[in-house]
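User: Design a sequence. Structure:
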């Protein structure tokens, strides 16, 4: 691996940044949306399709992969890139969020988290060191620190306790990660919806001089304006020369507004999950293909799209597939959704370079507001 991990800003428009993250396995154009490949697969998609849509990087999940098929097994089989046939960069999250949200009977101590698997009830221990070890076995290119994510709303004292624990775990993760040429470990800013705690977390993590920084614990129950306020606090403190990653976000509107505040990377299950449940994201906004109004509609979702799923199949056919429970319905709508997200990201990058990001956001927002006009 001859290329070192690096990030450079190529253009700015206000706080919005267009940049590139260079890694041995490829360059990630930012702002970037990372399709979620939780268990080594982007659900309902072939990896070749994901690449062809313009994805430079995908996300894998430490919690799920450690339970099935096991990190050691993936390592014996050549690592996650070989295992899943994805040669480009992979970011793995630490598993902390899934431990907090999925695992039964979890116990959090200074050492780490002990929990029962939601798969078979087996007891596992996840320490900061073990999380980094698993991510190393998976051979991911960007590894996340183990943190404790508190669902909002929560009491300030509980938010502060989890934030301070996450800071201590970040130091241990950095030590466990060591020096891995071409790879990076990101810290995670926590602090819930308390500005002073977000500020403290960002300042303390900044002192660790990590290669990148994530903002976690948002889009977990708080209104959008609270999320945006916390981004304003964190992005004002985090280094200008390091990538910023907003974890688990979000809707197209969330992404557009977060980019305007200086965020460079996103991931979310929303486009793939929505596709499997009959919901399409388009430049006209969301279209629910379960709705009976589509039963006799011969139009495609968007005849101007260059995605075959969007351009070549009628709404009537998609409605039929979804209502019939056919797997192809979820596949086509997932394809459409990821195509739309990547098209949106490309438009964002171009608008920042052209210095017209405000005009671009106004145009896409107007399209969502105008909506999908039914045929006469």
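Assistant: Done.
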């Amino acid at each position: 691996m001859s290329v070192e991990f690096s990030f450079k800003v190529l253009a700015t428009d206000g706080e919005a940044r267009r940049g590139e993250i260079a890694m041995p396995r490829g360059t990630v154009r930012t702002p970037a949306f990372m399709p979620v490949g939780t268990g080594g697969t982007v659900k309902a998609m072939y990896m070749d399709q994901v690449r062809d849509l313009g994805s430079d990087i995908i996300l894998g999940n430490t919690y799920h992969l450690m339970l099935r098929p096991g990190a050691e097994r993936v390592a014996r089989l050549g690592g996650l890139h070989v295992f899943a046939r994805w040669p480009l960069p992979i970011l793995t999250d630490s598993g902390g969020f899934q431990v907090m949200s999925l695992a039964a009977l979890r116990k959090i101590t200074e050492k780490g988290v002990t929990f029962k698997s939601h798969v078979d009830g087996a007891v596992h221990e996840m320490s900061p060191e073990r999380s980094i070890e698993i991510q190393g076995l998976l051979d991911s290119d960007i590894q996340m620190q183990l943190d404790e994510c508190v669902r909002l709303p929560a009491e300030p004292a509980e938010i502060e306790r989890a934030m301070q624990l996450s800071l201590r775990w970040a130091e241990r993760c950095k030590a466990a990660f060591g020096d891995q040429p071409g790879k990076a470990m990101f810290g995670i800013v926590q602090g819930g919806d308390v500005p002073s705690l977000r500020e403290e977390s960002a300042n303390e993590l900044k002192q660790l001089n990590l290669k990148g920084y994530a903002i976690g614990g948002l889009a977990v129950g708080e209104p959008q304006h609270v999320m945006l306020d916390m981004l304003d606090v964190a992005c004002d403190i985090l280094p200008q020369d390091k990538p910023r990653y907003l974890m688990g976000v979000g809707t197209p509107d969330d992404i557009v507004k977060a980019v305007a505040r200086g965020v460079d990377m996103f991931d979310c299950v929303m486009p793939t999950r929505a596709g499997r449940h009959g919901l399409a994201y388009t430049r006209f906004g969301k279209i629910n293909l379960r709705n009976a109004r589509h039963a006799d509609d011969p139009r495609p979702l968007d005849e101007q799209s260059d995605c075959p799923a969007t351009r070549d199949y009628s709404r009537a056919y998609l409605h039929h597939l979804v209502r019939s429970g056919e797997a192809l319905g979820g596949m086509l709508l997932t394809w459409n959704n990821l195509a739309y997200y990547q098209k949106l990201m490309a438009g964002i990058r171009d608008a920042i370079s052209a210095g017209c990001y405000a005009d671009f956001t106004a145009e896409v927002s107007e399209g969502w507001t105008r909506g999908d006009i039914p045929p006469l």
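Residues 275-368 form one domain. The mean pLDDT is 95.
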